[in-house]
Fold these 4 entries.
Entry 1:
Amino acid sequence: MDEVQHLTRELIFQWHGGKRGAFKAFCDKAEVDATLPDDDSYRRALDELRPNGRISWRLVHRAVVVCLPADRHDATLENLAGLWWRDRGGSPPPGYCGRIVVDGNVIRDELLSSGDAPDDQSRIALLERERDLAQQQLADHRQQIIELRHETDALQKKLAEFRQEAETSQRVFLRHVETVTERLEQDAAERRAEGDRIDSRITMLLDENEDLLRRRETLVQERDEAEARASLHLRQLSELREQAENERRGLLETIGLLEGRIRVLNQELDRVHPFDRPTAAADTNELRRPVDPDHWLGKGDAAPPPVLR
């Protein structure tokens, strides 16, 4: 019993959970050869798995696929192919297109083209894989075509809806444009009329401004003349006040002299007629009162009227 056959048997036993009935359960599950009747397929598998039997790579491949999870298929087949290679003098498993690994070393990479196949079974397997791939791609393309047709029909329907909506929107937009255009033309006419009124108003205001400027120049000139006259009048008033003050002082001095003269006269009269005259004090007070027919005296600091000469 070579190592490949031994490992395959152990793989089936582990999968089934024991040796009793393991091969029968495996054959029922694996469908080792669908071209043969069930009994013949079972007998053929037993012939390959018995200690002195010659196991086929097809049975090894089915055992790995049935008994192990999918994520362990490639690595297990690579190692079993390496044992097959070593035990059979460097001959690769017939129909196997994957890598061959012996003691961790890659003896052969995965076959990608039928031209690289070393045997007819591998070439057939590669051609079948290429055929299956092409059929799968064809089926995918057909499915894509069907989906694209559905999408095209939906898009054409949607396009018709969009076209109808666009035509409706276009009609609404054109009506809106016409309405807006009429409104804009009306607004433009109103703006032009308003502009004409504003221009007229501006012209009138400019004329008024020129009149005001001329009036201001006249008023400035009149103000300057009035200020000059006021300055002259102030100087004249100051001179008149100074003159009145001088005359008042002169009058006061004259009154003082007259009062002194009257006192002297009163004294002389008293000596001449002592019993016919009023008292000197009364006469003196009456005589001291200045003559003020216009009542300027007693009005505070107001200056008396000027004396015209």
Entry 2:
Amino acid sequence: MDIQLPFDSPKYLSRRSPSSGLSMSVSPRSPSWKEWFRKVRGLQRHEDQCTERKVFNRNESRKRCTVAGVKDCALRRVVMMCHGGWAETYLACCRLRESPVRPALQTLTPPNLIIPPMNDLDLIPLADTISQFPVTRATAAFLSDEGLRILLCSLSGKIKKIRLGGLKITEKGWRILAAFISMNEQLQSLEIRETLIVEGVVACLVEAINKSSLDRLSLRKCGPMTARVFQETNVPFIGIGGDQGILEILPHKTKIRGISISEIPMNNLDWLLPLCPMLVELELRKCSITSDLLNPILDKLENIERVGLAANDIFPGVRIDKLCNCEILDISETPIASLDGLVGEKMQVLRLYNTSISNDQILEAVQSSKLIRVEKNNLDPSVAEICLKHMAFPSLFRFSHIV
């Protein structure tokens, strides 16, 4: 019996089957071979298309890169498959969106993004780019309801800190923000400035904060509803500013571990005394406090790690022996004249912006302590080089020069 096989190789010619003893001959030019090859090729192509479609759909469901309202399949695929750097990805998104390229956005460096003010149309290609990079910190300002939605939807689940300022949002925008807070499991810190909290969204916002993993919440100059938000939430680290009424509810908060207050003039700090034993962070920036008001507070701080007293007239007279026990100390814009006794064994970071401390005093403090970072404007470069030699961890030294 002769059997036609679709193979065009000499090794198959005149070969006898060992099992059946049948003689096999090949006719590679027969029509059956062409039909068989065409059918196999078509099946393979169909299988490849099905596999590619399954992989694409799976990746699409995982990355969710169409959060900015993209419905074009080609754009989604290019954005998902772009493995270049930030600038290359942003240029590809602008080209596919037919949007103008903003050179300032090409220089952004994740994971910490500081986004300049822009309109919603310019924000769309940027959101496409953000969705492809692990962003852990994001700062933005002057966003509308739609702009806020585009930005928040582009951020992945790895975002840990968000700072928003001057938002032009309505009740719709606050509800979008509340939904993002409740759904994001990695978000740890949220700071909002100069954005009026609408009364109708307070309950929704409070519910989202209580369900979230937030441990730091800062609402500065957000209107009278700020006090109600803090009153009904239990975030351990809070930041307030510009609203005197919030101070009345703080003594009743039993789980507070850190307080940051700015631009609220205070003539009395007795309300802070019951909270001092629990605090590990305390910042009173530009609050018009004096050493007489501050010293009783410093005596009560038992587990303090970070103290911020910038822009206050506390020198001389403040208890230096109490300040030296913290790890991070910010005494910028204060009339301090000397660092004698101020730098303790635990101190790691010292901020001296806009102070009269000389370079020689900084050198002496660095050589006699375990400081790992000194931050001061107009620091002499030669002093910075000497500091690098004496600090315990030179790689962490930060030389800040501000004109």
Entry 3:
Amino acid sequence: MDSRMATRVILVLTLFTGLCGANLKGNIALHARAVQSSLGHPQGNAKHAVDGNREADYGKGSCTHTKTEFNPWWRADLGNVYSVYKVAITNRIDCCRERLRGAQIRIGNNLGNNGNNNELVATVDSVFAGTKMFEFKPVKGRYVNIVLPGNDKVLTLCEVEVFAEADKPQYICVPSECSLLLCMLSVTQIFDNQSLPNRTIKKK
């Protein structure tokens, strides 16, 4: 391969690698392994925040509940490391919605301090009922923590949904209307200033 061809191939790789990268579809925390700092009520199990049910009336049995304690927390294990860019939290609607104010979303791979020292990506700074989305710069991590700093706090979550970007593929990705050969020819035209053959590109 001569230097000109090598340059063309490098340019093609630069132009097209990663064009097929996208966001993973759906909630990757669904049915993830979940734990919390304590169980404050028989039906307030940690798994209820990842059961796929946004029911926000605590009495209907789909929310978590810790004891009243110092720095209560909840954690989901995603099973793999993902580039997380959004977390949705569903808060209670029946009562006590103000309890969630000040809660922190933390993401990372470290289980020191139960994962509560991982990177802080968002804070619940206002009272809301129902579901609220928190978007942030993508952070890589396996564990998603919700921690509520302070004394005499109760943490209740009715659903936690996690959304991540797909990793960029390791192969070359080209637009569907352009074969790799024709794209190479296009790059050749850039370098050689020659006209492409008169041929129609058929979309598949």
Entry 4:
Amino acid sequence: MRKTEEVFNSHPYCCYKKKGRLSVFVSVRQKQHSEMSLTAILSEIDGGDDKGAEKLLQKYNTENSHTFAFDHKEEDARIKLCQGLLTVLRRSDHPLCQSTCLETLRILSRDKRVLGPVATKEGILTLAGLARIHVAGHNVELLEEPQSAEEERVVVEALKCLCNVVFNSVPAQQVGTDVKLAEGLCAHLHMVSSSHHEVGLFSLRLLFLLSALRTDVRSMLRKEAGAVRLLTDILERTLDVQWVGPYEAMPPTPEALTISPENNELAMEALKALFNITMSDSSDEVRVTVLVEHQLFFKA
């Protein structure tokens, strides 16, 4: 045994495991700290101390911002935390507390095994309400467009959570279809101001995911929600397309500015969603119209 291995094996807080040439050091202290953190957070939530929970969650978020692999032994605790976070989100009206809880939920939603409490009608509607997406026929408070940076962060974090949950959970996809989340999202996109870039970006990304994962959603978006017109309008506005005729776009002038990185992101997300919605349409009229518009956009 090498001297280095002896040092690590003798350390009271570390375990040493060798697999081929790969040496993996697992800190027992870190595992214990993680377990204690989850227990402490759950204790604060159960006791109704949202302020105390918020402080612990901020620390948890900092420590786990780049965590994508989770300890299986803590799975039950993370499921309880998902449920606890939804409880706090329903009772708190403080933007900082809401965004902190949503950030934690976004981190947890990277693990598809703990999404049971979130991938429910109640969970999806809670997130939709915080994302300012109105779901028709459900008692979800329709909030106005965010006025402050703190309010906008809540909306963006809620949209990011929805993206993760929809991507990682088939039950969440079904719930989203049942409550017509995509239809509400289209109405939401009609009202999003260009000044709220991330709100528009993650709204389009969520629309892309819903249309990519559910064929029935694609059909609904095409026939009922007017999504093709919505997305082409977004593309025209984002790419600053100027029409000189029914089927002719004005070419850019030599002095024209290049597309900003923000508008480039929006255009890509809109095109991805538009492709999903139109790719299986058997209608020659719709297909030809979309192909012509795509060609005109590329020429512009």
